[in-house]
């Protein structure tokens, strides 16, 4: 017990230093690591954010390994990556099939080598009220959006731990930090992604392994066709962002080994409100004021006309 006499002041001192350091880091961010020649595997690389990530990693000299269930989309991405002059291997994989994930991961090891950066990006969204979803829609969404992370990470993490070198990137969502109507299944899956990656980060830390990093990506609305009816009173606060812009910010965060990347960056302030002591009524008042959320994904069908188009 006596050791607390010096441990507590030391802790306080280190907390103060940590504050000073993080303040300093606001102005002088940590440097970017080099991914030239590194093997980057992206799931859901055939469209949207995944495709943009592939192109940007290619420009940095990475060797791309592209996974998608959609062979056509994946090959389109591969053609763009080749055009840049980067090495690329494509695999048609349904990430929900755990045996396939395992066997294709083995093939990647043989044909390409160890994966340095794994980006779990594949995801789906239904955008319907819970009671309008079918059981199989719900199960499929959970399988793609969260269960697949278990299968891919279990396939590639062992080599990363052994080499004490690697990076697991999880594309979650703002819906993984705050629940929203019409996204009950999606929010549940993305909260799970946030929890999965946070717990994995702590687990790797407990192993006293350095050199294996994690990044949780938390984007708001991205213009890929996935969320077609975002809502918000002040669109500047939750703009429909271009996937190439989002990919740039993801890569910047990954290269700086950031644990969490919120996109847009201003999302941090919105999220902070959730963590302060704010009465539930006040949260709801602000909620109504800002009117954040999305409308049903089939809004255009039920209303007969797509007003946002
Ligand atoms: N679009 C947004 O508004 C938004 C916002 C926050 C987070 N996200 C997340 O970003 C990620 C990428 O989204 P996007 O908007 O680029 O989507 P997208 O629909 O444009 O692309 C997703 C890709 O994943 C692939 N895919 C789907 N199921 C698969 C499976 N079972 N196995 C392998 N590949 C599969 C699709 O074929 C497609 O190529 C997702 O995890 C999504 O939840 C998107
Ligand atoms: C597969 O990708 C191609 C090219 O992007 C697209 O035209 C097609 O609609 C996609 N198929 C499915 C089932 O999503």
Helix content percent band: 40-55%
Major β-sheet, in short? Answer: 7 strands, parallel
Q: What ions, cofactors and ligands are bound?
A: nicotinamide-adenine-dinucleotide, 2-acetamido-2-deoxy-beta-D-glucopyranose
* Structural class by helix and strand composition: alpha/beta
Shape: globular
Domain count, please report it: 1
Tally the helices: what do you get?
10
Would you kindly provide a written description of the structure presented here, covering whatever features stand out?
With 309 residues, the protein is an alpha/beta fold. It has a single domain, classed as 3-Layer(aba) Sandwich (Rossmann fold). The protein is built from 10 helices and 9 strands. It has helices at residues 4-27, 48-59, 71-84, 98-111, 135-163, 184-206, 243-255, 267-275, 280-290, 299-302; strands at residues 39-43, 63-68, 88-92, 117-120, 166-171, 212-219, 230-231, 260-263, 293-294. The strands form 2 sheets. The chain has a 7-stranded parallel beta sheet, sandwiched between helices. A two-stranded antiparallel sheet has the order 7-9. The chain is globular. The N and C termini lie far apart (67 Å). Mean pLDDT is 93; it is low at 305-309. The structure holds nicotinamide-adenine-dinucleotide and 2-acetamido-2-deoxy-beta-D-glucopyranose. Nicotinamide-adenine-dinucleotide (NAD) binds at residues 43-44, 46-50, 68-70, 73, 93-96, 121-124, 144, 171, 173, 219, 221-222, 224-227, 243.
């Amino acid at each position: 017990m006596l050791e607390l006499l010096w441990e507590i002041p030391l802790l306080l001192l280190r907390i103060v230093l940590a504050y000073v350091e993080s303040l300093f880091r606001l102005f002088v961010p940590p440097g970017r690591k080099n991914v030239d020649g590194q093997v980057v595997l992206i799931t859901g690389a055939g469209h949207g954010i995944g495709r943009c990530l592939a192109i940007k990693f290619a420009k940095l000299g990475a060797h791309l390994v592209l996974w998608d269930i959609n062979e056509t989309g994946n090959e389109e991405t591969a053609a763009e990556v080749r055009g840049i002059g980067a090495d690329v291997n494509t695999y048609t994989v349904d990430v929900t099939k755990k045996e396939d994930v395992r066997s294709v991961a083995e093939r990647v090891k043989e044909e390409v080598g160890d994966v340095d950066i794994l980006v779990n990006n594949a995801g789906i969204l239904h955008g319907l009220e819970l009671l309008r979803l079918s059981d199989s829609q719900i199960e499929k969404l959970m399988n793609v959006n969260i269960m697949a992370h278990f299968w891919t990470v279990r396939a590639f993490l062992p080599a990363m731990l052994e080499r004490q070198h690697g990076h697991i990137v999880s594309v979650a969502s703002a819906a993984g930090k705050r629940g929203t109507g019409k996204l009950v299944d999606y929010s549940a899956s993305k909260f799970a992604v946030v929890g999965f990656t946070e717990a994995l980060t702590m687990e790797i830390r407990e192993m006293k392994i350095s050199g294996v990093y994690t990044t949780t990506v938390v984007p708001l609305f991205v213009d890929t066709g996935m969320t077609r009816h975002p809502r918000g009173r002040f669109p500047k606060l939750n703009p429909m962002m271009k996937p190439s812009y989002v990919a740039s910010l993801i890569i910047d965060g990954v290269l700086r080994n950031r644990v969490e990347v919120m996109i847009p960056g201003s999302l941090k302030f919105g999220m902070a409100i959730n963590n302060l002591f704010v009465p539930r009524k006040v949260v709801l008042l602000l909620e109504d004021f800002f009117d954040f959320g999305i409308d049903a994904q089939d809004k255009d069908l039920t209303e007969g006309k797509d007003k946002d188009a």
